[in-house]
Structure formats: structure tokens, C-alpha cells
Amino acid sequence: xxxxxxxxxxxxxxxxxxxxxxxxxxxxxxxxxxxxxxxxxxxxxxxxxxxxxxxxxxxxxxxxxxxxxxxxxxxxxxxxxxxxxxxxxxxxxxxxxxxxxxxxxxxxxxxxxxxxxxxxxxxxxxxxxxxxxxxxxxxxxxxxxxxxxxxxxxxxxxxxxxxxxxxxxxxxxxxxxxxxxxxxxxxxxxxxxxxxxxxxxxxxxxxxxxxxxxxxxxxxxxxxxxxxxxxxxxxxxxxxxxxxxxxxxxxxxxxxxxxxxxxxxxxxxxxxxxxxxxxxxxxxxxxxxxxxxxxxxxxxxxxxxxxxxxxxxxxxxxxxxxxxxxxxxxxxxxxxxxxxxxxxxxxxxxxxxxxxxxxxxxxxxxxxxxxxxxxxxxxxxxxxxxxxxxxxxxxxxxxxxxxxxxxxxxxxxxxxxxxxxxxxxxxxxxxxxxxxxxxxxxxxxxxxxxxxxxxxxxxxxxxxxxxxxxxxxxxxxxxxxxxxxxxxxx
Length: 490
Ligand code: ADP
Ligand code: MG
What we know:
By secondary structure, the chain is α+β, with helices and mostly antiparallel strands. The chain is about 40% helix and about 20% strand. The chain has 16 helices and 15 strands. An 8-stranded mixed sheet has the order 5-6-9-1-10-11-12-13. A hairpin with a 2-residue loop joins strand 7 (about 135-140) and strand 8. The protein binds adenosine-5'-diphosphate and magnesium ion. Magnesium ion (MG) binds near residues 200 and 217.
């Protein structure tokens, strides 16, 4: 149960995920949220904290948070309150962040993880909406700090989990699953490289059954890989302190990716007193049940539902189905490929679906990531991919040849059938032709034939290999096996 080398110490993890809500304008102003614009191109008087400017709530952002809540089966609070979280920082011109404290918009929900050992439930405590801050820029001038307020006031959802995760693998899986869900419903782009989604990881360790230990919070982790590394490092650090008789100080830490370690940032004693209070410029947010119900009706098929359907329709196991549905675009590619295949009657839907998913997961995904392109930019379309699978299923080519054909398809974008004809890769099933190849192999290895006939049956594999090689990999392997047996024993 316990991963890594923390011995009999159990790792406890709770995540606070910040997801930028997909909207054209900011949470309380009409300024654009477009990424990559000139610094301070997307700033309204509200975002700049000009006196007297009043915030106006963005209904689209509220809808996105409700959608996210519904997608994790959470309770939607029809009444929620916006509070001011007060602190001073140059990138926060208002002097406070508008957030939600005691009455968030979304209450308890849960996220299911597809772990290799089975499905694991992780509780979500709450989701609240808040404003993002701006950014300090230090690279322009060694003497000055510049401020870019493009991000100031952009809508964020903070998704807070229960301390339910027990390993770095589970935490990574949770972050990936959340990302998958918000991308399915279009509530967040989930682009961690652009800082679109980032998380704080709370980590503690304990002996199983003991009460929760003191936690440290690792701030602003911006990739799944870093999250994994940060947790493993942090858990080991805590175990080493406890094993040597020390105690853990509750503190905020930073993950340094270049060193692969977490470092203290501030202790609990330095923790801010944010003096939360309801924002007097904003009324409590009241939603109608009808607003919520309409959003519920608009939800697409979610990853877990798709997974269930794949398991029932195609006979996939839970883990494989989970991998296939993680990205909506990959699942779509799978379904489009299957649709383009008309061989369902001959070999059965289950086997065909299995072939397609294997070839996707084991061959196409790898080639795409080597090229550095997304599945939506694949040079091999679902229809062409179906063409390749069809040639394998009807025994025109072997699986081994198919891998080469796929390489050519990636390079040229040509149809599989065209490549097979051009390069003469058709599988040889004609018995006469294969017999001729075997005759040649036997004639070239008379001593081996004699040994085999004298009882050295291990040599059979050698003959199969030689015959396949002599046919340029094109001979049908089962025909080769069958004929070899006959001809060697003759
Ligand atoms: P804060 O507001 O100070 O960050 P919260 O009570 O909101 O504190 O908890 C934040 C996160 O810490 C939650 O995701 C929660 O699951 C997690 N957490 C709480 N206690 C522990 C613990 N002992 N070990 C690991 N994670 C914890
Ligand atoms: Mg926190």
C-alpha cells in the first residue's frame, strides 16, 4: 500500500487546485482574458483598483463553476457570498482579493481515480470562485520591478480536496482526472504550462491508524510531474525528521524543480491574517434551481460515464477504459476509427475495439508525442488509421509489418493500402510460396535439420525465424508454423 521508500509511514495528501475559468472577460470587469497579450493590455479600471469602480459579476464564470460542481456530483449552494481577503502586494492593486470564504458556491463532491489496483474515491470539500492576482516582472530592469495586471481579476476556481490521497501516484492521478473533467466540460483549458491550472499540495505522514500528522503546504506546483516529485521528496523529508526524533513544523514550502527538493518559504507563525469579510460592493450571489438544472441538462458525457459505456460496449477493463477516455479528443479518435471500420461482423466488435485501442495506446500515441503533436493534429486521420487496422484484421499484413506501414503513414500521410502495394508488403499466405521459402531454409541448414529430426525440438524457433526473415517478414506466421511442422517431420 505504501509507495516509495517511506517504510511503514503512510503519506497523506490533500490538494488545492486553482483552475482558470474559461471566459472571454474577467470575473468582475469586461477586460479580456486573452493569453499572451502585451503587458497591461487587458486592464480595466476595476482591475487596476481605481477608487469608486464597482465590480460587476460575470455570469458565464458563475455558470462554469456550477458546471464543474455538477460534473463532480457536488452540492450546488444556491446562495453564496463573496468576501474580501485582505493583504498587501504590488500585484494586487485593490489591496484585497475577492474570494469566497464561509459560503462557497460549490459544496461536497467526489472524484474517482482509475488506479491500476482499482477505482479510488477522493472527496472534494468545496469549490469557490476568486480573482487571480497580477504578475511582478523582474527581468526588464535590474533596479525595478514592473507589474503586469493582465491576469489581475481573471476568474479562478479553487477546488479543495479532502486529505484522501495516500501516494504521489494517487495525487498525480487526481490532478489528471480533474484536468480531464474540466476540459471535457469546457470550464478550464487545463493548460498547466500556461499556468492555467496549478496546485498547492498539503503533505503529512503518519503511522497507519494514527491521527493525521502536521502538514506542510507546497505552493504553486505547475505540472503533474513536479507534483509527483515534490510529494515524494516532501514525504521522505518528513519521515527522516520524525525517525530521528524531530517534529514537523507546519509551514509553507516551495518546490525547486532544478534541485528536485522543497524549501521552507514561511512558517505558520508568519501566516497572514486576511481579515475576511463580505465584500460590501457585492450582494450575496443567489442562483435559481432552474439555472442549475439547465446547466445540468447541458453537461456532455463525462469521462466516468464514457468509461462505463466503453466497458459495457467493448468489454474493456476499468483501467484501460480510463486511459482511453482521459482526453476527450483521444476518445473521439477511437470512436471515429471504429466507425470507419466495417469489419465488425467478421471479427466481432469487442475484438475490433480491442485492436483499435491497443494500436492507439501502444503505437499511435507514442509516435504523436515523438512528433510533439496533439491527436487532433495527427497526420494519420481516424479513417486512415482504420484502413491500417483493416489490413491487419483481414490478414493482408502482419502486425509487425503494420508498425512499419504506420511509420510511413506518419511521414507521408498516405493510405495504408497504398503503402502496402507500393512497397510490396502484402502478407504471403499462399502455401506454395511459403513451402518454397521453407525448402530454401532447410537446404541451407542440413545439419540443423538433422539435429531437429534427431530430437532437438528447441530448433523449431530457429527455423521459424529463418523462414520469416527469408520472406522479408511477409510470410503469414501461422502458415509458416504449420508448414514447418509438416515439412520438418517428413
Ligand atoms: P488552509 O486554508 O490553511 O490551507 P484547509 O483546512 O483549507 O487549510 O486545508 C487545505 C488542504 O489541506 C485541504 O486540501 C486538506 O485536505 C489538506 N489537509 C488538511 N489536513 C491535512 C493533513 N494533516 N495532511 C495532509 N493534508 C491535509
Ligand atoms: Mg491552503
